[in-house]
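User: I'm new to structure prediction. If I give you an amino acid sequence, what do you actually give back? Let's try with this one:
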Amino acid sequence: MEKLTESQIAEALAPLPGWSVVNGKLHREYRFADFIHAFGFMATAAIAIEKNNHHPEWFNVWNSVVVDLSTHDAGGITAKDTELARTLEALADKLQ
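Assistant: Good question. You get back a string of structure tokens that encode the predicted 3D arrangement of the chain. For your 96 residues, that looks like this:
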């Protein structure tokens, strides 16, 4: 898996509002109604994440989930990360 160029990353993020590049990783903070919705997002996402064998760095406090994506083996952001970002957006849309 090859790292994406800056222009490829920008193109991939165009339809994903809220996503940005922070410290060389795709970054997004989700806010939900409460802890149950935030945890439900993480639990639901875990199934898709495990299926694709591509795991995020994420952090949860009460109603927020902070997600950072990069492909460690490639040393940066790859198509796997943008694909996972799209998956997370679709799941979050159902819970927000």
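You can read the tokens as a compact description of the fold. Here is one thing that stands out. The first strand starts at residue 20 and ends at 22.
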